[in-house]
Each structure stands twice: as structure tokens, then as C-alpha cells.
């Protein structure tokens, strides 16, 4: 089994993505990582999304206190795993980074992580947003996160936890129109577990389903209308040649077609 040293860098691969992961218990390394992150994303600092997660120590007794052992931060394809339990000190740069109200920290039940960080280390996370992702292997989740040297399996787990949280946060922050376009062009296997952790989850998903159904039928409606003549023109062409009974029947048919035109126009407003 491989182990990481006090400060190390790893290339964690996830479905073709390479996440460059720094593992450290040294405040100076955290300073450097944050400074580099701020420089790389300097054009997006007003709307920066950061994947956030924590892992806790195993309890020493039943129902005992579980102190936060590590904090994981992920921005873009760069991840930081800071071993708080063994840290020489907590750098002011991390305090300012977590407390920046312009940044949005995303993760599964991230509010619980924020509460634990404040409870154990008085670290305040200013702005959080919950997302939900796949559950991870319980064996790794319940491992010894307060170990001085983390296993490669732990590093991969911690890195991907923060990375997936970030990717979900980026996806769910997109305008509804872009989400619909993505869903139309993406395999269902890739999106089956993307849900918002909020009271609006069910309603939002239902609205997306309705809009997708409308978009799928839009092409059919559009083709039907393209083949038909305008309703008024249809009535005017037949009114002089047909009996009152036939004219009435044609008028009803024209009205139904006009309703189809109106429905198509309503659907087009989604675009």
C-alpha cells in the first residue's frame, strides 16, 4: 500500500480529467496553493466556485467527538488536501479564503462541513451551497483520516469528493437553458445522480422534464405547421365553394390548426 509524505503532489485521474492534488500539513504550502489559485482564476474571483469537503477522525469511544482531520478544496483541476489535525498552524490566507463572501463553496451537505470546521477550528465558511453526489465506499469513508501519512486510496477519495462536488456545483449553477441543452446531448448515465439539495429539487426536476418533453415535440409541431396554410386563408378559399355545413366543418378544422400554431409559438418562447 502506498503512502503520501508530509507534503506531496499527486495526479488523480477521473474519467479523463487530471486533478493535480497537493497533500500537506504545512501552512506555507497552503499559502502558496491559495495564492496560485487566486492568480489562475483572477478573472472569476467574483463568482468563484470551490468544491469543499472534510473528513473526520474515527471516534475513540462510542458516540465520542469526531474532530475534523482534513479539509479538501478543489478549484478547476487543482485540489488541496490540508491535514488540519497535524497542521503546524492555520494560515490567515485560509481563513480569508473560506470567509470570502464572493466565493461559493459547494459540496454534499456542505453546511455540516462548515459547522464542523467552525466548531473544531473556528474556521468560518461564508457562503455554501449543497449538492448531492454518489455515495462513496464506506470502507474508505470510515478510515483513519487523522493518520500522519494518508494512503493513496484516501488521497484519491478525498480529491474526487471535492472535485465531484465542484463539478456538480458548476453544472447546477448554469442557466436553465444550458442545463436543458446539456441533458439533451448527454448520456443519462452521466446525469442520473445530479440533484439539488433544496426544497425546490422536485419542482425543478419536474419543470426540466416538462421543458424537455416540449422541446422533443417542438420539431413535430413545427413540421406540421409548416405544411399547413394559414387558418384564415384556408377559410377564405373554401367559403365561396362549400355549403354552410361544409364551411362550418372547415372553420372548426382551421380553428384547431390555429390553436396548433398558437401552441407552437408558446413552445418557442422556451428557446
From TrEMBL:
Domain (3'-5' exonuclease): residue spans on this chain: 44-132
InterPro entries documented for this protein: 3'-5'_exonuclease_dom, 3-5_Exonuclease_domain, RNaseH-like_sf, RNaseH_sf
Pfam families per record: DNA_pol_A_exo1
Keyword field: Hydrolase, Nuclease
Basic residues bias: start-end ranges: 239-255
Superkingdom, natural source: Eukaryota
Stretch list, region Disordered: 230-257
Gene Ontology cellular component terms for the protein in this record: cytoplasm; nucleus
GO molecular function: 3'-5' exonuclease activity; nucleic acid binding
GO BP: any one term: nucleobase-containing compound metabolic process
PANTHER family hit by this protein: 3-5 EXONUCLEASE, WERNER SYNDROME-LIKE EXONUCLEASE
This protein's name: 3'-5' exonuclease domain-containing protein
Organism: Hevea brasiliensis
